[in-house]
Structures are given as C-alpha cells and as structure tokens.
Design goal:
mainly alpha; about 100 residues; single chain
Length: about 100
C-alpha cells in the first residue's frame, strides 16, 4: 500500500473513532466525524459526558447542545479546509 492509501485509511479510522466516542458521551456522532482527526479526538475527550447519571436534565441538555455545536463547527471548518485544498490542487493541476 502506498502512503496516500494508508493516510486515507488512518483518517477513516479516526472518523469512526470520533463517532464512537461522541456517541458514548451522548453527542451526535455525525457532528464529530469530520472534526479534525487527532485534534478532534483531543477536544472530544475534554468534553464532559452528557450520559453521566448524577447530572440534572438542564445540565445534560446544555452539555449536549455545547458538545454538538463544537463538533459541528469543527467539522464545518474541516470541510471548508478540505474544499480549499481540493480547489487549489485542481487549479494547480489544470493551470500547467
């Protein structure tokens, strides 16, 4: 396997891990899947769990809202970055 394939498999592995960790914390996995690989995992580990048994419902709802918002913003920024890189590569390839 070449380096590009290994890199893509590693990113896929990180995306799955982010989804699993987000789900285990009571957050929406879809919001966290593209949240930036290792940086996303670090941020997600710092998020408090919304599934703790000793918290009241308003605190739980606030943790879910905040965690989902952070994940969605990180994923959005990652998508913008990926799009910009792809567009720049497309321009470089087709300008030559």
């Amino acid at each position: 396997m070449d380096n590009a394939t290994l890199g893509m498999l590693f990113q896929l592995f990180l995306a799955v891990m982010l989804g699993v960790i987000a789900s285990s914390k009571g957050l929406r996995p879809l919001y966290w899947v593209l949240s930036g690989g290792i940086i996303g995992i670090i941020v997600l580990f710092c998020q408090p769990s919304a599934k703790e048994e000793d918290i009241d419902e308003p605190t739980r709802a606030q943790r879910v809202r905040k965690g989902n918002r952070i994940g969605a913003y990180m994923s959005l920024f990652m998508l913008i970055g990926i799009t910009a890189i792809l567009l720049l590569n497309f321009e470089i390839i087709h300008v030559r």
